[in-house]
Protein: Anhydro-N-acetylmuramic acid kinase
Amino acid sequence: MNKRCLSRSTNTAPIQSRSAQSTPFWFFVFLMAEWCVGLMSGTSVDGIDCALIQTDGERVFWPRAEEQGKEDLTGSTGTTNSELAYLVPYDPAFQRELRSLFGVDTSAVLAGTSEVDTSRSTVIRIEQDLTERHAAAVAPLLARAARTDRHVALIGMHGQTVFHRPASAHPPDAPAPGITCQLGDGNLLAELTKVPVVFDFRTADVALGGEGAPLVPVFHQALCRSLSRTLLAKLGMYQQQRELVLGILNLGGVGNITFVRLKPAAQHTDTPGSAVVPVHALPGAGEDFVSEDGLDLLALDTGPGNALVDDWMLANTQVPCDFDGVAAASGTVDGGVLAKLMAHPYFDRVPPKSLDRQSFALSVPECGLVAPACSVADGAATLTAFTAASAIASTQWACFCADGPKLRCVTCPRVSGILVCGGGRRNATLMRMLRDRAQALAVVLRPVEDVGWDGDLLEAQAFAFLAKRVQQSQPTSFPRTTRVSKPVCGGRIAVPQVPQAEMLE
Structure:
């Protein structure tokens, strides 16, 4: 086998043939893992992230380092990060079409019970267009996989969230069922790609009283289990304590964070020349930390990610975002407006909790942030500060007590480090504001690249991982990640009439 898994040693080498007696158990697990594709279209509506990983739903196995090349698989419309992962951007016209459905309960439109002006035919047309774009985006990845003898077993398609209102978003005196709407026709994608597709990941969670978001925590936990103690110590996140808490902060359109409690494993092999191990190995089989599914996790949406700043820039400059935070860097934060924004009742709710992209849209003008009274630069600076303040404030909820999260818990270990992924980490002004606020709490904040992860493609990889879990009927969300009443396996599987494997025969 000339395969290589992500290693904690820089001098890794391919796994060599060895006798069954000396082969660790996880090696046989690796042989049972399958290649899965994840497709993610986030609330920033920049495009479709595509990623291929090998996983068994518990562990993640990365491709060999030499395969992280520069081959352009997407033609003139794609931005390639590697041969097995890339972004295919949306054109501005399609971005406008998707944005036109933000805040629209498309399930009600399709059922004929909506009071909005959006027509059923419009929703169907945009969803079909979105699905066909997903098929076109993933085609080069499937072709690459076939050329290199990787049989793609599953595609995990998140779809495009246009409306998200969990039951908890309704006032106590007017309870109502939760609703979440993601565009994307899994059956059509399966027929177009001839690969089974897992889709509709959130509905089952919401139906059982969950928030429906975030869904990536169990993937974050799988990655964190094998983080090196030595590496975390070098980054200042680990000081040989008995256990630690890391935050994985994703800054897309909405901000969300996963808190993972990690307990040092009884045995670990964090030494030069140690055996190559998978990203997530079994306890005592080479991993440095253990973390129990469902119990050592806490997740929540922190507040706005990039959405408010993006919308502000688009409305006032016709530019879709504040590239590198240049506008915010030249502006002044309005402390009064920021205080009003941080007084939003959402921040007093006990997690797990989630947001819709539009949750703060009305709060911005209500708090006095209106052009031209407020300059473009000052507005960008204030909204960027809002993202940073709400993200770091979420750390005060990092609690793993059996009776639920408590604000500023004194019995649980404090957050020692935050790893940042998503497009927001490319905004230098936002990262500076995050670091300043984190430093004030003695928390180390770094981009996820500092631990060897890809911050642009982590969510796409997560939905490949979740697809495999759905296939195996494993939980994708837990009471401590979405407030669901019990661990739930969310997602539906669409099977093509003529599978890809049969077409190749």
Summary: The first strand starts at residue 34 and ends at 41.
